Each structure stands twice: as structure tokens, then as C-alpha cells.
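Journal club prep — side note

Before the paper discussion, L.F. wants everyone to see what a predicted structure for a comparable chain looks like in C-alpha cell form. Sequence:
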Amino acid sequence: MSDSHTRDKNIRRGVSFMLMAVFALCLLLPVKGEAKVRAPKMQCHAYAVMDAGSGEILFGQDENKMIYPASTAKLMTAIVCVENGNVNKKIKTRSEIVNGTTYGTYCLGLPSGVKFTFNDLLSMCLVASAADATDSLAAGVFGSKEACVEAMNAKCAEMGLTQTSFDNPVGSDIGAGFYETYSTAAEMAEICRYAMTIPIIRTAVAKSHYDSSNGLVSCNTTNWFLRGLSSYDEDEYTVIGSKSGTTNAAGDVFIATAVDDEGHEVICAYFGNVSKASTFSSIRKLFDYTFKKYKNGKLQLTSGNYDVRCSEDLGDVYNEYAALNCFPSGKDGLYHPQKAVTRTELAKMFRGVDNLSGNAVLDVFEKGNSKGTVTVSRLASLIQELYPEHLTEEEVEETLSGCTNAEELTEEEKEAYALFLQNGLSSDDSCRNAKQILTRKQALLIADRLSDYQVRYYASHPEFLTGDAQPAEAEGAAAGNVSTEGAAGETSAADNAAAGTSEGTGTQGVYPALSCGNMDALAGFNKKWMEYLTDQIIRTAEEGA
């Protein structure tokens, strides 16, 4: 048999084997949205029910079809005004603004030349849906309504909303000659999700009544749930806001946000029903259905954690793993990123983000002091137990130069701490203090970095894939007795897999433990490792071709 024929045969066997491995990984890793339920049929243009914690659309009806948002567009106006304006500023109303609102919109009749606080105008915009207050806020922050609209569309682009556009701050549409204001139920739910992370907006939309600070204006909310005009089961959940709207083209519109007593936040973006009463009734039915399915185990909900889910420094990382339900939160819906993380909370993060469920090392770590806080050096020791590596004394000394409180560590702890820093697992400079107590924010960032580190570790330590050592299973690892002898040299398992060759039998020589009869070897693999293997399959197939 020719060498080329043997090589081609090994490549085909390698690709087939790796496909089986990735398929097995797919079975082990959590799938976002796997608990979706059937969407109830409603008489409307479209609706979307979203799990606010994860941002996932749980179910919907024509949720990606173009709709007119009506005054729910004011949520985006509020977002850009808060993010670009001074919330402590007073804004003087202008006659050309308060008297120049779109014909047919609801106004409070604000007098011109009068100063209102930023919060006054924002609240009148969101509580009463007043066009004159909305336009005054937009012009007060940006100088003109047109500049505000530019900011609204720029924010859509930033948020990745490709089916949403605005050409006025108040939500007027084709009925009033505005042809570039449109969206979808799914994207308006995303806008609401973002808006509900901003405290001043979250507070405003929860009000049933508002009196301006200067005593000139009083107004009631357009949210019938908050006014008691539409009932719901308050023992099951609480409606905490958001925004209504009405135009001839849009119909009756409302985006509602509800929270249960466990802190699960659900958004229902509902567009177009035959009356306001039927709109609120339909939303109530959808909320009832959602929370009932959650209690019955048919639907997965995540904690709200609204203080981090859209934040600049944590939002992307949090959203990537939110559906895993592995992050701590309180009934107040907050993640509290600056709060010290406990061992139980950290272990839960690692089990979810890094797929370490059932890990003996992690179990021992948690049971040692479940409610205790975690220092950087203790976490470093945990990670070295999970993924054993070693450094020379010179490497340890060089890495720890400039660190504080490292001199009090044992030699083993120093090595683990040096490995932690050298492998880029620290979240910020404070981690160079060995006694630094980790916060929830740091824990989240470190868990994410650990998932990247796992990919590099597995690729360069084939003994953890062949069964010679398994960090997620071996009880000896809990005692720190896992041997790393026989680790790969300069040629890694990933290199061999990419080439489709190894000693003996193709890819099985590299990953012999990965077989249909030994699924335990897959324990501890996170989704990034699965993506890595998938990439190797593609690369192997291309090289084989």
C-alpha cells in the first residue's frame, strides 16, 4: 500500500473520529434555547417574549417581521439622551419645539421658556408618552431633533440592530409622513432590554404617576398594569414597566417587563391589537404562560443581572454565558459586580462557563468553606490542581517580582500563583496582590479567561485526552497528586490532529480516549474547545483535499 494511500486513509479516519468527538461534545454542552416552547397564537402584527437575563427570544410570532414601533421608539430616545446628556442639567423649553410636535401626537401642553429638569422631561416622555416633553429632551441634549435621530440610529448600529431605523424621536410613522421609523418585535425587545439596565430609565417607567419638580405638570402613566386598569396575578410576577404606543399603522403597542420573586426578568414586546384592553389582556396571557412553563420546567429563565448584562466592560462576557445560569444574583435583579465572590459562587461559575460539573477538585474546594471568600493565590492553587503545570524556581521568582504578599506563600503556592499570572488569567493589576479578595466581576472575567486557557492546555497536554490524566475526573488531582510526565513536547496534539497523522492509527493515536466507549474523556471540555476541534476538522479536511 502506498504512503499517499495510507496518509489519505488516516486523514479520513481522523476526520470521522473528530466528527464523532465534536458530536459528543454537542450532547454534553448546554444548548442555548433548548427548552423553547410553542408560541401561542395571538391576534396581532407580531410579538416577542424575551428572557431579559440572557437576551434570548423564548418564543414569538412574526418576531422578525417589520412593524411600526409607535411611541415605544421613545425608549431609544431615552437611551441616547441619558448616555449623551447631563442628567443633572435643567433644560429650557423652546416654542418651536413644544409647538412643533408631529400632528396627532399626545402632548402635555408644556409652556415655552420654562426650565424643567432632565428627569422631568425624561419622566414625562416615558410615563405619559408626551411628544412635547420628548422633543424638548431630544433638542435639549443634542441641540436639535435631527441630531438626536442620528444618535438613535448610531446606537442601533452599535447594538447590531439591522432591522431598526428611526427618523423622529417620538415614534411617528407613515401615517404622519415619517417613512424611516420601523423595527421588529425582536429588536424592540432588545432595545427595551438595554433601556431597563439604565437606572434612571428603569425608575421612570415604573411610576404610575409623575409630578414635575417645578409643580407645573402632573401626569399618569399609559401603562394600564401600573394604574390598575388591567389585572394580572401579582403572586406570580410583578410588572415593573416599560413603554406603550399607538398609531394607526402600529395599532396598540406595549413592551412590558415583568419580574418573578426569584429575580427572573421577562420582556414581552407586543405590536398591534384591536384595542388597548385586548393588548394588555394578551400580554398578561403571555406572561402567565411564560412563568407557568418556567415553573413546570419546560422553559429556562436566567437571573436579571441588569447591572452587567449590557455594561461596557462585562456585557459581552456576561451575555456569552448568561444562558448557563451560573452567575449569582439577588432578588433585586442585580449582579453586584464589586461584591466579594464566595467559593460556592465561584464554583458555580466554573462549572457553567468552564464545564467543570462533577469535578472532584472543584467539589473539594467548595466544601472547604462554601461561604468563604477567595484570594487570588487560593484561586491560583485551585487552577493548578485542575490543570497541573510546573515552573523552575527562577521562573517563579521572575514572575512574582513586583507582586505583594507573595513572600508569605509556600513554595507550592508561589508556583501556582506564578503560573496563574504567567498564563494571563488575572483580570486586572490588583491580582498582583496575592491576598487580593476576588470580586464577582473579577471572577467572571477569570472564568472567561480560564475557558481560553483550557483550549491551550488541552492542545498542549495530550495526556489529559488520552486517559493518562483527566483533570475533571481524577480523585488524585484533588490532593494535588496528578502527574504531568509524558506531556507533549514541541509537537502538540492539535498539530498532529491538523496533519491527520500520529503513531499507529491516525487521530486515535492522539485522542485514543475519545471513543464511543469512553465518553468520560470529554468531561471538562468547554464550548471554546468544541469550537477549536471543529476548526481542526475543517482544517484537516481542507489539507486532505
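L.F.'s comment for the group: The chain has a mean pLDDT of 86. Keep this in mind when we get to the figures.
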